[in-house]
Amino acid sequence: xxxxxxFEILVMLAVLRLGPGAYGVTIRDELEEETSRRxxxxxxxxxxxxLEDKRYLRSRTSEPTAERGGRRKKLYEVSPxxxxxxxxxxxxxxRLTSGLGLELEQP
Amino acid sequence: MSASHLPRLVRFLMRLCVPHEEREYFLGxxxxxxxxxxRCLEGRRRPWMREVAGALKLRVGLRGKGPRSRTPRGDTMxxxxxxxxxxxxxMMARSPGFTSVALVxxxxxxxxxxxxxxxxxxxxxxxxxxxxxxxxxYLRENNLPRGWTSFTISPENFWDWQEQNRSMERMAxxxxxxxxxxxxxxxxxxxxxxxxxEFLDMLGGEPVLGRGFxxxxxxxxxxxxxxxxxxxxxxxxxxxxxVLGRNMVLDGESHTIIGILPxxxxxxxxxxxxxxxxxxxxxxxxxxxxxFLYGIGRMRPGxxxxxxxxxxxxxxxxxxxEYPETNAGWGASVRALDDVLLGxxxxxxxxxxxxxxxxxxxxxxxxxxMTLARGSSRGHEMAIRTALGAxxxxxxxxxxxxxxxxxxxxxxxxxxxALGCLxxxxxxxxxxxxxxxxxxxxxxxxxxxxxxxxxSGLLFGLIPALNVARSNRGEALRRSTWxxxxxxxxxxxxxxxxxxxxxxxVVLLVGSGLLIRxxxxxxxxxxxxxxGGRLTWSTPLPDSKYPTGEELRSYGDAALERxxxxxxxxxxALTTLIPVSERDWISELEVExxxxxxxxxxASALIYRVSPGYFETMGLPLRTGRExxxxxxxxxxxxxxxxxxxxxxxxxxxxxxxxxxxxxxxxGPFVEIVGVAGDVQHYHLGRTSMxxxxxxxxxxxxxxxxxxxxxxxxxxxxxRAIRTEIQAVDPDMPLERVRTLEQIIAADVATPRFRTMLLxxxxxxxxxxxxVGLYGVMSYTVAQRSREIGMRMALGxxxxxxxxxxxxxxxxxVTTGLVVGxxxxxxLTRVLESMLFGxxxxxxxxxxxxxxxxxxxxxxxxxxPAVRATRVDPVKTLAPE
Lengths: 107, 881
Prior knowledge:
The structure holds two protein chains of two kinds. Chain A is mainly α. Helix content of chain A is about 50%, strand content about 10%. A two-stranded antiparallel sheet of chain A has the order 1-2. In chain B, helix 12 (about 345-375) runs parallel beside helix 15, helix 17 crosses helix 25 and helix 23 (about 750-785) crosses helix 24. The longest helix of chain B has about 35 residues, at about 390-430.
């Protein structure tokens, strides 16, 4: 029964939203845009590495592109266990927020 | 398009921070991101340093399975330690050259110290394995007027001490007397102690099987009884408990086995161990003038050794008055057990331990040197850490963690090294130290090693760590390799460390030089006889089987006749004493016509009884007169040969031939001196020996029969033939102590050789380390100043002036270290005094030689970098990066 930390969930959600184009910079930009955080690539990579270790993310390597100085990209996608972990963690959050009456239960 | 938007520094830093496997993607993302920023944010870039700091997280915590360590902020102390350790491991892995040199250095230093400390711990520190060992004292007689500080005790004196003293709870006596055991598969010589009733009890050796000796067992009229050593019991009787009550034939007499000693129990005074114990039974010939017993005593609680000494001295003084004939000059000597057992080894071991400690100190200084040099190249890393908010304490801790890691891993390697050294020690030098069987690498030693590793890590880590942390961060960030001469405070520190290294090495080199000279002097020392091709062995004859002189003589004659016929034997002789073999026989002699009013007039000498041909076989020169011949036998005129020193000391140097001597207290006829032989070093090489007196064996037969043989073939190849011939004469006769004279001499100098070898290897290691340190500093200086040198050369400086420039840095270090070291050596080598033979502690040869060696070796350490400096290509060094 996998679970994930808050920032890990955010990263996985960003990967889900980005679909086939999920890699370091795009994930960072997505998160910065949607979550009002300032993030360094190091933070992103650290979390991506951890999620990969947990088998929540899978990665593959793209072809090199010129705009990156001829370097390749590492593209990520969420694995089935990752999906389960997101689901579990969100379910926990919902259970814990329900009935608190502090307008935490948005649809 | 090849133009990268990433500044070179950022790329460099990122390369440091991002693990290799992620680096390509990370840098790609960074590039892409900066490209986007440039377009979207109209030049408003993200701050690079923030990115670098973020990337540092990737360096923290190695990639592995499971959750990673949390972000640095808010870590608990243990986690930080784990992080420091991980970081340290990575840093070590990243510079394998530095790491391996540092590890080898530390392993050598710590390993040598661990081995040395194991020895010191086993020999000196562990309590002696006897109950209340601090109350046990060793008792001997002495005769100070005649210069004998320690002598065996006469039995009647011992009994009087026992009755009249007030300081001892109990006393016991023993003598060492080997016996021949027949009845096994072949005759066997067993090492035996004859002990009085209290002996075992006092030394905690109650038998595990059967019983010890009681008062009845001391009665000479009862049947013999024997106790077996545990190891001997297992070896010879397979550990069979049924042996109790069985008989053993010892020296032809039947003895009942009554007990087995506890496993591992050893009596303290015989290093080889004793196989059987027999009761010390009075014999008819015992008298007040026969000194042959050893004594031990257990002091009453609260009595000090000094009090016991003065108590027994007063008892001995009473005896002197009571029995002036036999006891004049005889006193008592009381020494603590551990003083007797370890007194000689202690200063030597402590000196060796101190020396090896100096080696470790040098090793630490060396690693500190390397760390400092590395610290300069890590200036950027430290600057960035500081810039990111790492406090000075944090950085010091990080650097210390790296040093501690080095020293701990080095220490672990050192333990392996020490294990090797110790097994080498027990194989190669089995008997040079007391209690060697108790030397092991136990918990105490490991604790010592752990402490030593930690202390070393702190020592060589703290200096560079503080130095690196102190450097100004702004300066370090700005500074590139463009700086002309490097950080001056660091250079001063490194120079100081070189001076320390050189001076320590000088002290050790002087010490080993002195020991080497002393050892060489010892080797050149003429023992008085020739050693090459000579074999010796003993066949002590049991009294019971050879009760009369006639039987002893016929045994000797038959054996010599058969041995002389063995092919490869040039000559063979019989003797009762073999020089340098740790056994002696001393008697007092009376010179005809010489008064004996004061003790100085009494002549004492080593008594040898030898067969014809002894002097020739030993290669012992006769100065005047003649050797014994077959004609000097029972019934012919008694004759004697004396040594030069005897003639000098007791015959006033006058013509010796024709003078007459006899045993003191013997009313028989005087014996005429027919020859004077060269002096022999009977005890140890390089120690003054007692004069020797030789009687013909045929005229004074003895059971203490040994042989010496001169062979034209390798002497040890004859042993089998010799055994056959001896057993043809007496089938129950084993060969004992079969050794060549060369082996005897080598065993005698084994201890000096051991300490010389150890101290020399320490000295050479120290020299090597110091030179490596010096070389490191010089190469570093040259590297740092290559721009300056290049500039000078571009401006027309000669090679020689460049050479001078570089040497000007090194020469003062060496000379200062040399002077400091020589002064230290003058102060410290005094402790070697007791170990030196034929060389003074301030031997000018050694004190001149060491600086020469050091200058020669350090010259090459300085010249190699200096010459390299002159090859500097100005164009390259002056070109921008």
